[in-house]
């Protein structure tokens, strides 16, 4: 199982799924918990590791494609994934700006 997104929702989702006995990979697309202080990130990383969550962070971990059974990363890796949970952000192009 793959969780995409290293913000609060992604971290919580990955932890909850791992606590329920699922094998989970958390794909950060950058740094784990970018909103956290470095000490907080280390603490979260330690807790996730203790739960057995594989955390992929750093350059090349941006998701470029999600298929029916895999997640493809910017560095060319392809992660098998029967279930992918998308918690990463999304951006609007014109509507948010137009709405003020």
How would you describe this structure to a colleague?
A hairpin with a 4-residue loop joins strand 5 and strand 6. Helix content is 31%, strand content 23%. Strands 3-2-1-7 form a 4-stranded parallel sheet, with helices on one face. Strands 4-5-6 form a 3-stranded antiparallel sheet, with no helix packed on it. Helix 1 runs parallel beside helix 2. The radius of gyration is 14 Å and the shape is globular. It is α/β, with parallel strands linked by helices and 100 residues long. It has a single domain, classed as FAD/NAD(P)-binding domain. The protein starts with a strand and ends with a helix. It has 3 helices and 7 strands.
| Residue windows where pLDDT falls under 50 for at least 5 positions | none
* CATH class division: Alpha Beta
And the CATH topology?
FAD/NAD(P)-binding domain
State the CATH architecture: 3-Layer(bba) Sandwich
Total DSSP E strands: 7
The CATH superfamily turns out to be FAD/NAD(P)-binding domain
What is the overall shape? Answer: globular
Largest sheet: 4 strands, parallel
Task: Walk me through the topology.
Layout: E1 2-4, H1 8-19, E2 25-27, H2 38-51, E3 54-56, E4 63-66, E5 70-73, E6 78-80, E7 84-86, H3 95-99
Parallel strand pairs: 1-2, 1-7, 2-3
Antiparallel strand pairs: 4-5, 5-6
Helix pairs in contact: 1-2
Short description:
With 100 residues, the protein is α/β, with parallel strands linked by helices. It has helices at residues 8-19, 38-51, 95-99; strands spanning 2-4, 25-27, 54-56, 63-66, 70-73, 78-80, 84-86.
